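Cross-check.
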Amino acid sequence: PSPTPTPLPGASLIAFETYRDGNGEIYLLDTSSDQLINLTRHPADDRAPAWSPDGSFIAFESRRDGNWEVYTLSLADGSLERLTEDPAYDGAPSWSPDGAEIAFESYRDGNLEIYAVPSTGGQPRRLTDDPAGDYGPAWSPQGDTIAFTSWRDGNKEIYSVPASGGEPQNLTQDPADDDSPAWTSDGTAIAFVSWRDVDRITGSRNAEIYKLALLEGTVQRLTDNAWPDLDPAWDTEGRLVWSAYEPGPPFETYDPFRPGDYHLHRMGAEKPQRLTDTNWDDRHPDPAPPRVDSLAHLAQVLPPRQPSPTPVALPEPGTLAQVTAVPSMLLSFADQPIQVNELVAPSLVSWQQDVLQASGWDFLNRTLGSWRNIDQVRKREMYAYDYGFLSWHKAGR
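Predicted model, tokenized:
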């Protein structure tokens, strides 16, 4: 017999995407115990989790079938259903409050538009139609409206469109970029990300989270951080949950800051509470609806993690590996030959073997940006310093 889910009074589950396993996975976090469980367990990337209103399913986007599609995962028995099937990208699911449909973004008509598909599968219907990109749908609690982000005014703005289809309405109307709408539970306000204010430390614009009261039209700033705050969401107690960027420590002489990571935060009574702490990005939190099931139950019904389709054979301890140096590999870039910096090779190979031995996954099998000169720097507009380029794969930082 199937185990019966055990309610956890007062517990707060948050679904989120994380790269702590070397690829994108959907995890659940029980904030009352810090317990974690991997829901998707697949070597392909899985992202953008969205709870069903009754808490029995999680929708998400995945590349497990070769391109990005929308899936639903049953939390009762661990079964998986694919809802979209198109060669173009489909992703960013958002449930209707009655659970009957799922809104999503899609490239199937040549640019990003908003669609809705029955949650049990069927033919999608198109909700937006504009040459500019429309993406990131968020279904209102009342079910009659879908908020989304649009480029149709030349920058990113928050729009809304009737769930039955109709003329979109611009809600934010600011010269700075606004995106990532998230409805409050009563449907009277929307949290969103904006670059409208100048940061007090860097002197440049920074992503912060704001709240738009729809009836009054007033905007309130909710976060104040020197680094980007993204992915707003609301839990069942009306607390803001989001992803906050934190820079790493100094990294060599040519880069003032090592690439940092995003961690989940929740608004507390006096200050934000940090919910996760890893060396990997934790993004797109979605707090559970009032119905909450036991993590122990989920661990019993979910399948084991699937192995990599291309497993890497580990050498026997003490085996001498043959390393082939490529000191003068040339690439054509902008009609100018650029030499790979050979100073990188010894440390990269050594690090690659250490990571492979420790994790069983060859994260450092390839490098990114290895054509750049080691001392090349660029100016990033949003920050007040020059910084260099790193050539390591993201998992090796």
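Confidence is low (pLDDT under 50) at residues 1-11, 251-257, 323-340, 366-397. Helices lie at 295-301, 344-359. Passed to J.P. for a second look.
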